[in-house]
Amino acid sequence: MAINFKSKILLNMKQPLVSILAPCYNGARFLHKFFESLLEQQYKKIELVFINDGSIDDSEKIVYSYKAKMEACGMSLIYEYRENAGIGAAIDRGLKLMHGEYFTWIGIDDYYHPLFLQKLVSFMEENKKYSVVRDDGYIVDENDNTVILGKMADANYDKYNEHLFDNAILERNFQFGYSLVRTTDFLKINPKRTIYPSREGQNWQILLPLFYNGLSAFYSEPLYYVLNNSHSVSRDPRKGGLKKLLAQKEEYKKILTETLFSFQFHEREKYLLIVNDKYARMEMRLGYEFNDGNLLKRKYQELKKLGTVKNIDHILYLRFHFPIFNKILVCLKTFFAKRS
């Protein structure tokens, strides 16, 4: 039996409101695709919190061109323009403006499958023990979105782990993807709705406290699309060289450190050591990869000072500073290969 217009309104009223936080900086060329995917959502109880992060293109004009269409579908729009401060600051602002019982966020160059919210909201309504549900997504070609290059969680063999705090910090068998968060659980931990406003992102700031204090689920059906931009330095910082890479790693370290101080837990010192060890070792390897002996030596000494230096670190240091050591390793490898 067909559902009449009045019944649709009543059904929409009973559904929990979902806030979508969408920061945008000069993303006009992606907005039509994003908004069409929003209008195609089978789940209509949506509040879009659109933060224009200082765009100088036609982003604002395009956003307002969809306002009436959204309202006709039962969706609402909160729009705010601000001077450019980066994605973390935009999300921080969006958290303060949202009203949803659930919330999620998206990069404006990505877009949704029509069932993204319907399936994730249904899952969370049926599984009250979870604070977060993470979803898999398709990676699509930037020039032809019908070409699927892979899935976000293809290399993640621990995707169903419900306790993700360690994995997320270490980036071990883990990918963020897009998530749906239960707002009440978020506000218990972060009542001020404040995150460290990094230009490098917002995922750790929002999710780490939830991973520590609650459970996370994984929904395996891919329900969003991530554009693979082969020219993006942010998605492949090696294209920016060593300086860009180091700046990114130091900012990631700052994000984690700030986040570890943003909520109450008794293991802070343990995890601060883990973070410092992680990035000292990462940057030591960058020194080796980019033939920067000073960087390698500095980070090697940092690991020794932390008391976390490993045999593999000693070997890397020797291989760089004493080329004869490389020759010995090659000879040993050849010797044992012949014996086997």
Please give a structural write-up:
The chain is of the alpha/beta class. It is 49% helix and 17% strand. It has 14 helices and eleven strands. Strands 3-2-1-4-9-6-10 form a seven-stranded mixed sheet, with helices on both faces. Strand 7 (138-141) and strand 8 form a beta hairpin. Helix 2 packs parallel to helix 3 (59-65) and helix 9 runs parallel beside helix 10. The longest helix is centred in the last third of the chain and has 22 residues, at 268-289. The protein is elongated, with a radius of gyration of 23 Å.
Keywords:
340 residues, 7-stranded mixed β-sheet, 49% helix, elongated
**Estimated helix fraction:** 40-55%
> What is the approximate shape?
elongated
What count of helical segments does DSSP give? 14
Mean pLDDT: 92
Beta-strand content estimate:
15-25%
Q: In total, how many beta strands?
A: 11
